[in-house]
Design goal:
alpha+beta; 10 strands; 14% helix
């Protein structure tokens, strides 16, 4: 019996002009909030006009979601993933509404988790598995990594998977990152991606893009209205 794949891939997921716009805008951010890239999240209701180029891309990427999930999704929570693969600082985890869990509201997962890769990287494979994270292991890696899907970063590749699955990033040698990796030299370009979690309702306390003066390189230019 073959194991069902956990990840669905769409290559050339965005039209080239839109993908180029997203990739250039993220690159133009430089090191802005690089150390807090995973904590800088935004909420975008799909029924409203986009405020950023990432949100414009989200509208186009929604067609790649599973049909059943697409019917229930009302918005997307997004943030940027930027790392040196020689210094991976994100553990294996399952996406959830963090503020809700912290305030005693229980663990709620998005309908779909997804990654839009912006460039190639040395190593840096995405790992997705049904096995739970294990805090006893380096990077909270699951005990068993033989039952997993691996996704290589490629420009304009869009990976989607169920929002309650475990996932993480391998290092520049495509090994589970070790605690000592934090002291290793940072080599090569950043591995850049946009993370998009698709929800039926807004996660607690996630701001809209533009509510704070952050990431202005991603903002859509104001289009003049009719005169």
């Amino acid at each position: 019996m073959h194991r069902r794949r956990s990840v669905t891939l769409a290559d050339a997921a965005l039209a080239p002009p839109l993908f180029g716009q997203v990739a250039r805008a993220v690159l133009a951010l430089g090191n802005e909030r690089l150390q807090r890239t995973y904590q800088t999240t935004f909420w975008f209701p799909l029924a409203e006009p986009p405020r950023s180029v990432v949100e414009e891309a989200a509208l186009a990427l929604a067609r790649h979601l599973p049909r059943a999930a697409r019917a229930r999704v009302r918005g997307v929570e997004w943030w940027l993933s930027r790392m040196w693969t020689s210094d991976v600082r994100v553990d294996f985890h399952r996406d959830h509404d963090i503020q809700r869990a912290r305030r005693g509201g229980g663990t709620v997962h998005p309908l779909v988790s997804s990654v839009l890769f912006l460039n190639r990287a040395r190593g840096g494979l995405l790992v997705v598995t049904e096995e739970p994270p294990d805090p006893r292991n380096p990077s909270c890696a699951p005990d068993r990594l033989d039952q997993m899907d691996l996704v290589r970063p490629e420009p304009n590749r869009f990976a989607t998977f169920d929002g309650d699955l475990t996932h993480g990033v391998l290092d520049d040698r495509n090994q589970v990152p070790q605690a000592a990796a934090a002291g290793r030299p940072r080599r090569g370009p950043l591995r850049r991606a946009v993370i998009l979690n698709w929800w039926p309702s807004r996660p607690w306390s996630v701001p809209r893009f533009g509510d704070r003066p952050l990431y202005r390189a991603l903002a859509l230019e104001t289009r003049p209205g009719p005169r």
